[in-house]
Amino acid sequence: MPRAVFPNRILPYALLAPQVAITLVFFYWPASQALYQSTLRQDPFGLKTRFVGLENFEAVLSDPSYLNAIETTLIFSLATAALAMALALLFASAAEKVIAGKGLYRTLMIWPYAVAPAVAGLLWLFMFNPTMGTFAYILRRSGIPWDPLLDGNQAMLLVIFAAAWKQISYNFLFFVAAMQSIPRSLIEAAAIDGARSTKRFWTIVFPLIAPTTFFLLVVNTVYAFFDTFGIIDAVTAGGPAKATETLVYKVYNDGFVNLDLGGSAAQSVILMAIVIALTAIQFRYVERKVHYG
Amino acid sequence: MIERSPLGRPLAHLLLIVGILIVAFPIYYTFTASTQTIQTILRPPLPLTPGSEFANNYGEALFGGIGRIGGVGVGTLLFNTTVMALGVACGKIAISILSAFAIVFFRFPLRMVFFWLIFITLMLPVEVRILPTYKVMVDLGLIDTYAGLILPLIASATATLLFRQFFMTIPGELVEAARIDAAGPMRFFRDILLPLSKTNIAALFVILFIYGWTQYLWPLLVTNNNQMNTIVIALKKMVSFADADTPWHLVMVTAILAIVPPVLVVVLMQRWFVRGLVETEK
Nearest CA of chain B to the CA of A152: how many Å? Predict the structure, then answer.
């Protein structure tokens, strides 16, 4: 039987109007502009624009600095996702075991979710910058030549820590929820069969939370791809020597700083394709849907 | 019953305490720094306990005569950020609940076209289309306005999908009952749908408020006038490691002020927040 509905003819259009209007003006218009711009090239003085087909894409994809940005993004995203998820899983499995203070632990664990990425980056920079950071001071005192403003690998480490730190809370909440939904009887049955805590975790808990883990992997990758612009800009500004220039940072840098409109638009289009692919994977393989934001 | 190793539980507590230290330490460190004199901050290592300058530093940041960033006081920054966060949260909830209502409770030509039109925007963040969106803002004269800060961020399908999913679980009998009682659709919306959606709205509100408050790239682009800066942007502009004049004690205070409001929202509305994040996202 079809759903009971209201018979009005005009009203639904009026209800849809605000969202459709905003979507058209602030989504479809710019997105189509990006597609169109990506096929144009301006001369160096911005006087003439001509149609170049897919040349911008060819130029972008054969540009060593773009390939470098892809590599940087992959390393950064995978390291951030792995670190944030591993720590969150560790803490969540500990939270499963405790009884007293569970609520308090959760409350204290979720703070960083509310910290802006750019501010998270600054917090870590306060602690680790060579001029005044206490940890930089400690590292140097113990003989490590620590200077993330000059050393690309150290800069990368710092942005990974800041990015992963911010994401721990989110993953923690999801892992806790996933573990709570595992039936007690399964764990008890395994315990009766003599499986120890570690064995139970790897043979029962871990496989059963796999959908959540996969979902988080996608969400964390998307986060590391797009939401970490603030961290990168605040901590390293893509430097030193482009060692931390991710794809999103490059779109911004080429478009707003270097004013290469066609190239930046082509990069935007590539990024959109990546997001659509990630979303499709998420829908296809995980039955969980919405990413807020 | 599950056997308990004698060390299991204390170990779990220990692990959680380590976790909380990792999670809270950067914030605590900055708070400690915000209560020190600038000389102490610039001479590492930083003391691990708060200093004596709490009142001075916070007083100077909040009420100090001369503004820091191009003459803009912290009050204005907090106001701008609050307007943006509330605008994003309320705006997105309002347009989304209306369109989900239309899609679920009406049948009309082009219904699925509209649904897909909205649906496609799912997960395409503003970051991937910054330059063209920026151009649209210039064309519409929305640079340095609250509308410019808010509108592009609410053009996304996530909240609509959530409300749609929830509305589909509402039994059709409720609609029939309303129609038999001669209640129109808007009456049904106000008296039945809105009260039923309260929890979902609260959950979404927290998530979207945080989303709006923590924005960085978009406000950076769309505000040229320092009067329109959000606190996150202003904080970033204050920080310069090369510049000997950077007022570090005030930077730390500003960082804490940028962190506290959204953290309060999350902690105080924890129940809805966790629910909104975890339960609805499944």
Answer: 18
